[in-house]
Design a protein that fits this description.
single chain; alpha+beta; two-stranded antiparallel ribbon
């Protein structure tokens, strides 16, 4: 967990974006345990690579200039986040 958070902050800083501290549990609580991409319940006890494991999804990807802040992240299933990849939600709708 520590390394994931550190790497998120590092990637955002490298691209000139803003970063703020948050945890997966804080985002899960805020989002009430629901995937921001499909709306289904996320299994908080599951571990990646389980398809319903919890992950952090950047609404506007860091690679596209998005910030690593609470306002730009949401809880997502590992599977949903993997399918989305580094695309924004608008591009995901065209694929699905």
């Amino acid at each position: 967990m520590y390394w994931q958070e550190k790497n998120r902050r590092r990637r955002a800083a490298k691209r000139g974006g803003v970063s703020e501290p948050y945890t997966l549990l804080q985002i899960a609580e805020r989002d009430r345990g629901r995937c921001g991409l499909c709306g289904g319940p996320v299994l908080m006890a599951a571990k990646v690579p389980h398809p319903k494991a919890p992950t952090i999804d950047h609404v506007v990807p860091v690679s596209e200039g998005g910030d690593d802040t609470r306002a730009n992240v949401q809880l997502a299933h590992f599977r949903c986040n993997s399918v989305k990849g580094a695309r924004g939600c608008q591009q995901l709708a065209l694929i699905g």
